[in-house]
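Sample log: N-acetylmuramoyl-L-alanine amidase.
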Amino acid sequence: MSNSSLAKWKWSGISDHYNIRDHAIDKITIHHMAGNLSLSGCCNAVQSRGGSTNYCIDSNGNIGVMIDERYRAWTSSNRENDMRAVTIEVANAPGAGEPNWKVTDAALNACIKLCADICRRNGIKRINYTGDTSGNLTMHRWFFATGCPGPYLGSKFPYIASEVNKLLTTAPAAPAPAPAVKPTVTNPGTGGGTSQIYRVRKSWADSKSQIGAFKSLDNAKKACKAGYKVFDANGNAVYPAAAVAAAKTYRVKVVHDDLNIRSGAGVSNKVVGSIKDHGVYTIVADKVVDGQTWGKLKSGAGWICLAAGFTKRV
């Protein structure tokens, strides 16, 4: 399952606030940000509240990805809905606020196009807005005591459904060919290419720290000095390998209400369970992945994130 090609930006932060879906995507839930936030500002805001979203749209109509579409984001305060829905956070217009929480035409139009694209890629033939949870276009306020998506955007749901359905009855325009990417190469003679580019940076988010980009992973590794990492085109650190520390056994108290247990260290690994009891657990090894420390449970159940907000050492 891929993300929408309409999204030209992806959040570089780290979140454990999502799950593997247990239902096919057959709904869309549209939220508002309750502010004119940037794409990164939206992601950071929902992350700070212990949530997440699949997509976000700023007031200029730019679309970003926070949590890949193949995962259930924690957006609508309802597990059943979010397991089935792709969730979208839409920025409010500059200066807009209570009581109407208006959104710009650019953001609204981008939302309509994104909804149509989600439908096409997931086999949703038609948007059916019913005004309640029985339809496949849903609102946050139907699941939780909130005003989201605000009076203005909420009033546009019938229009959104109508416009999306119009787009679904017409063939999508063929996308323009992507321009060739010419990498910046610091080692003369390594050549160019677009099949895969490996970038050497301190972190994926810190593009200014980049000291080279290479077609050859071996050459990227050679250029990678202390304090730097090699990232692939998707922003994944591929070198150096994160080392598992032969940690002394220690204990942590879980402070998160629903902490995922994963099959390995890092959010790319499968969720194999969860901890909800706020108990104390023994860690027998730890490992840093993408700047975040993970701990291996003594029970052998898997790995948990040890970051602040999830656990504290006792």
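Observation: The domain at 9-168 is CATH 3.40.80.10 (Lysozyme-like).
Observation: The two ends are 41 Å apart (CA to CA).
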